[in-house]
Amino acid sequence: MSVRFGLTDDQKALRTGVRRLLERRFPREALRAAVDAPGRLDRELWRALGEAGFFALRLPEAEGGVGLGRPEAVLAFEEAGRALLPGPLVATHLAAGAVPGAAGGEVAVAAVDGELVEWLEAADVVRGDVRGAVPLRSVDPLTPLHRVPHPAAADPLAVLLTAAEQLGSAVRLRELAVQHARTRQQFGRPIGAFQAVQHLCADLLVRAETARAAVYAAAVTGDPGDIAAARLLADEAAVRGARDCLQVHGGMGFTWEADVHLHLKRAWVRAGRSGGVTESEELLAAALVR
Amino acid sequence: MDLSDTPEEAAFRARLREWLAEAVPAAGPEPDPADWPGRRAHDLGWQRTLYDAGYADVHWDASPALRMIFLEESEKAGAPYVGANFVGLLHAGPTIAAEGTDAQRARWLPPILRGEQVWCQGFSEPDAGSDLAALRTRARRDGDDYVVTGGKIWTSHAEVADWCELLVRTDPDAPRHRGITWLALPMDAAGVTVRPLRTLAGSTEFAEVFLDEVRVPAANRVGAENDGWRVTMVTLSFERGTAFVGEVVACRRVLRRLAGAARENGRWDDPVLRRALGRLDAEFRALWRLTQWNVSEATANGGVPGVAGSVFKLRYSTARQDLYDTAADVLGAGALDLDRPWVLDRLSSLSYTIAAGTSQIQRNIVAERMLGLPKGR
Ligand SMILES: Cc1cc2nc3c(=O)[nH]c(=O)nc-3n(C[C@H](O)[C@H](O)[C@H](O)COP(=O)(O)OP(=O)(O)OC[C@H]3O[C@@H](n4cnc5c(N)ncnc54)[C@H](O)[C@@H]3O)c2cc1C
Predict the structure, then answer these.
(1) Per-domain residue ranges of chain B
(2) Which residue puts its alpha carbon closest to atom 29 of ligand 1?
(3) Model-level pTM?
(4) Which of A116, A269, B132, B282 ranks highest by number of CB atoms within 10 Å?
(5) Could you report the per-residue pLDDT of A124-140, keeping only the tens digit for each?
């Protein structure tokens, strides 16, 4: 049981593969270029993701998919979250096999989630009732948003994949904070030598690693309670992680130039998906008295 | 990523579950927390029962996976805790097993496993808490003995202990970490005085131990003279490893009872409380998975759970405090009544962020050893 919880060699290779792909196809310059051209979906990148199997990961091989499971999908989405990869990733992944072209990245699929739709205008196919959709001026420069009058119920798998993205952000934010704490000097020493800064960094790690255990376990079991728990832990790790990381960066953290705000804003968008934390907390509470 | 039991693990679990179903009811009710002789007898009795059934050494010899299954199933069956056996089974015993001579192992380990002797841990001193290496209790060599003078504090179970794993300073001139020695102190030796200390929960969980010219045979030294710091570090990694697994299972059971109580008294209709309970459920699910993850990673890297235990302890200690604060919320005015369930637990939970390394010290450990940040100041 527990001693085989860790990643298999294949899973490690998959994670490294996705990370390398994103470093190549979506380096930091591409991220910043995307910030400067909001709402534009990079179709070439989308097809590259499709070819790499990002969307078809869980589709059976007989249907032209990769034939892997939830754990592998979670690892891929963790990498996407880490890189702040833009686009309707979850909706397109979930549409693979059901919407022609989704699996291969030829089409981008948007879906109603709660009372919001991400990437409505850029998508080729939209799932759910979007009558009466109105655009919002999205807080996240990398996620165009519409609000719809007819909300849709949450799909547990979407919640899980979102949690994986949050985990990716949380881990990245810990790295950014620690890098900065090691190099930025004040009072003649790295700020990471100050205990107040060290403890912010330690808490970043504790939240991210606790979330990791919860997210991976939910990927293995697929249990709705485990998934709700994973989302609560991962949301907290990403949102609070972004704020602590911002604090460690000082004035630099408050700039448009630093990537911290991009993680914070995206973490807020993801935390609002699928009924938000309230729905997951109520789900778990209800299970306690069943 | 796999969370299922192997056939061997499943067989172990099934056999254990069947055995617990009969053994636990026979163990009798928990004694009153103020009844120390009763607690000692109860805890040792359960260890003896485990010994007779072949489970006594599960903490030492079984694989980490089997140990986790043992703790999980024991808790689910409502079995007694390690209690007074804690130091023997999880600190002193493993230290003697790892660092002791054959003769020392033969002398001290079997009585621990058979539930015959209680050990306590004499590390902390009035002026050496978080900064343990500042300890000053002095041991001077005299013939075949050490003569020990000084004092220990916060020594859990000292009132009923037979032995104490004692850290003493044997070389006051050496650098702090290099002048410390590990001794097994018989608690009935002349010159040992135990003064129980009352905790904020009202009972005497720990004590002050005064040592006045106590003669301890040199044969009771584990490891080399002045090598006690290294010997001790072997123990501490056990403490922060899987020691709390059973408690996480127990917390999840408390949470269910709390939800039931809230339903009965109407507090359940408050969405703020309901959501707090839901979030706690997420927290304890995650902590359970984190333990499994840590054990899995430690096994893959061929070692005992080390620094990762600090991550778990940081998160678990506050989760436990939150649990009982939420219990108070469910109880309303009953939270001020010591006779109500959970009220004493709420008081006890306050020690979790202090004992076995404070939360601040755990954060220092994470920052320095896991994140590689410069040594703090
Ligand atoms: C219930 C209970 C049972 C115990 N059982 C035992 C036992 O059986 N045997 C035994 O030997 N000991 C035992 N202890 C002692 C325990 O290990 C110490 O209490 C603990 O290590 C803290 O030491 P201290 O009490 O001296 O506090 P201090 O070290 O004085 O700490 C006081 C405060 O200062 C902070 N602080 C100290 N140093 C630093 C630093 N470097 N950076 C940041 N903050 C710092 C601490 O976090 C804390 O908030 C027990 C304690 C409790 C509460």
Answers:
(1) 7-113, 119-227, 244-370
(2) B130
(3) 0.94
(4) B282
(5) 999 999 999 999 999 99
